[in-house]
TrEMBL record:
It comes from Bradyrhizobium valentinum. One of its GO terms (molecular function) is ribose-5-phosphate isomerase activity. The keyword Isomerase applies. It catalyses: aldehydo-D-ribose 5-phosphate = D-ribulose 5-phosphate. Its EC number is 5.3.1.6. Catalyzes the reversible conversion of ribose-5-phosphate to ribulose 5-phosphate. Pathway: Carbohydrate degradation; pentose phosphate pathway; D-ribose 5-phosphate from D-ribulose 5-phosphate (non-oxidative stage): step 1/1. The gene is rpiA. This is Ribose-5-phosphate isomerase A. It comes from the Bacteria.
């Protein structure tokens, strides 16, 4: 089974948690894309749900699938968000933002009663940090923000190269919110909650890709089958 089939399997298992009438956060990325597609089939079959997309890409896909959409201004809370991740650890802390949608993803996850992470099992790690940590920043004062980030990394016992993300066209990647992303190659983030707190204090940092205590369940698809992990 190839990676894409594994992602679809994880998405299909997460779909079993969706009930008629739910308000759903719709994630971003190649795994979440399967979930949106499968949800679209349910909606076509008569299921009544409403979704909040976490990116313009997901909005376009959900609209094409005819999934009714709303906004976080129009509703109070979401019942469930289903989203992918770049890495997840045994505490179900995550690195997200490889697709550049981390800001809306975190806003939506934080407004949800539950978040289910769907992934192939290569994303599972003992310690976060092998995947470069995406940090969404304001373009103004980039160098100052990066210096403050380096201090936060040192205070958290990590270090590594930082790179401004570029798009496929070679230009600086711009997020849906009009910001830039700095990818930090840290290797092993031994105290992710501590680093998350420090990064959140930096004025030029809009949001970072450490999702601490937000995921309640992970559905991991691998060659041996599906593994479901619940946060303790
Ligand atoms: O955080 C994300 C986008 O900002 C994605 O969820 C993450 O990058 C995983 O993507 P994929 O399912 O394509 O591996």
């Amino acid at each position: 089974m190839d990676m894409d089939q594994l992602k679809r399997q994880a998405a299909a298992r997460a779909l079993e948690h969706v009930r008629d009438g739910m308000k759903l956060g719709l994630g971003t990325g190649s795994t979440a894309k399967h979930f949106v597609e499968l949800l679209g089939e349910k909606v076509a079959g008569g299921m009544k749900v409403v979704g909040v997309p976490t990116s313009e890409a997901t909005r376009a896909q959900a609209e094409a699938c005819r999934i009714p959409l709303t906004t976080l201004d129009a509703i109070d809370r979401l019942d469930l968000t289903v989203d992918g991740a770049d890495e997840l650890d045994p505490a179900l802390n995550l690195i997200k933002g490889g697709g550049g949608a981390l800001l809306r993803e975190k806003i939506v996850a934080a407004a949800s009663d539950r978040m289910i992470v769907i992934a192939d099992d290569t994303k599972w790690v003992d310690v976060l940090g092998r995947f470069p940590l995406p940090v969404e920043v304001i373009p103004f004062g980039l160098a100052a923000t990066q210096r403050a980030m380096a201090t936060a990394f040192a205070q958290s016992g990590v270090s590594g190269q930082m790179g401004l993300r570029k798009g496929r066209d070679g230009h600086v990647f711009v997020t849906d919110g009009g910001h830039w992303i700095v990818d930090a190659h840290l290797g092993r983030i031994t105290d992710a909650p501590h680093l998350a707190g420090l990064l959140s204090l930096i004025p030029g940092v809009v949001e970072h890709g450490l999702f601490i205590g937000l995921a309640s369940i992970a559905v991991l698809a691998g060659a041996q089958g599906i593994r479901v992990v619940e946060r303790r």
